[in-house]
C-alpha cells in the first residue's frame, strides 16, 4: 500500500505543479496582454436544474478527456491542465485588474477547489498509465468514484450556492 501512496502522490504532485505553473503563466500573460472581460450576474442557466446538468456534463467531459491521457501518451492530460490553469490565471488577473478579485474569490473557490482536485486526481491516474491502473485497481476505482462525487458536488455548488456568494 505504501508504494501505491508514493506512486499516486508523485503523479498528483506533478499534476499539481503543472497546473499551478500554467496558472502563474496565465497571470503573467494577463499583465502583458490587453484583454476585456465581460461580467454578468444574469445567466439563464444559473440556479436551475438544467444549469446544474450543463455544468456537470461539461466537467465530466473535461475529466474524461484528462483520463484519455492514460492511453494517448499523456497529451490530453497535459494540454487540459495547462489550458485550464492558464485560463484560470488570466481570469484571476482580469478580476484583480478590474478590482473584483476580492468579491469573486469566494464564489470561484467554493466550487473550484473541488473541481480542480477532481481534475488533478484524473491527471494523476492518467500519468500513472495503464500499468498503475492494472497494479492498483482498487485505488484507481476509488479515485475515479471520489472524483465523480467531487464533480457532482462542485456542479451543485457552482449552480446553486456560488451565485448566492456574489
TrEMBL record:
Q: Which Pfam families match?
A: SpoIIM
On the tree of life, the source organism's domain of life is Bacteria
Any transmembrane segments, and where?
Answer: 7-32, 52-71, 78-96, 108-130, 142-165
The keyword Transmembrane is annotated on this UniProt entry: yes
- InterPro entries of this UniProt entry? SpoIIM-like
Q: Does the keyword Transmembrane helix apply?
A: yes
The record's keywords, sorted A to Z, are: Membrane, Transmembrane, Transmembrane helix
Instruction: Identify this protein by name.
Output: Stage II sporulation protein M
Amino acid at each position: 500500500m505504501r508504494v501505491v501512496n508514493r506512486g499516486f502522490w508523485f503523479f498528483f504532485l506533478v499534476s499539481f505543479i503543472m497546473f499551478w505553473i500554467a496558472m502563474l503563466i496565465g497571470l503573467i500573460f494577463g499583465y502583458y496582454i490587453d484583454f476585456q472581460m465581460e461580467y454578468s450576474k444574469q445567466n439563464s442557466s444559473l440556479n436551475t436544474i438544467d444549469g446544474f446538468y450543463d455544468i456537470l456534463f461539461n466537467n465530466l467531459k473535461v475529466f474524461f478527456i484528462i483520463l484519455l491521457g492514460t492511453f494517448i501518451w499523456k497529451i490530453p492530460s497535459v494540454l487540459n491542465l495547462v489550458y485550464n490553469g492558464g485560463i484560470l490565471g488570466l481570469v484571476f488577473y482580469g478580476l484583480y485588474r478590474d478590482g473584483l478579485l476580492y468579491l469573486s474569490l469566494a464564489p470561484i473557490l467554493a466550487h473550484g477547489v473541488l473541481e480542480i482536485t477532481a481534475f488533478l486526481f484524473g491527471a494523476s491516474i492518467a500519468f500513472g498509465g495503464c500499468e498503475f491502473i492494472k497494479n492498483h485497481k482498487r485505488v484507481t476505482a476509488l479515485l475515479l468514484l471520489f472524483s465523480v462525487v467531487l464533480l457532482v458536488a462542485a456542479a451543485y455548488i457552482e449552480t446553486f450556492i456560488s451565485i448566492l456568494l456574489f
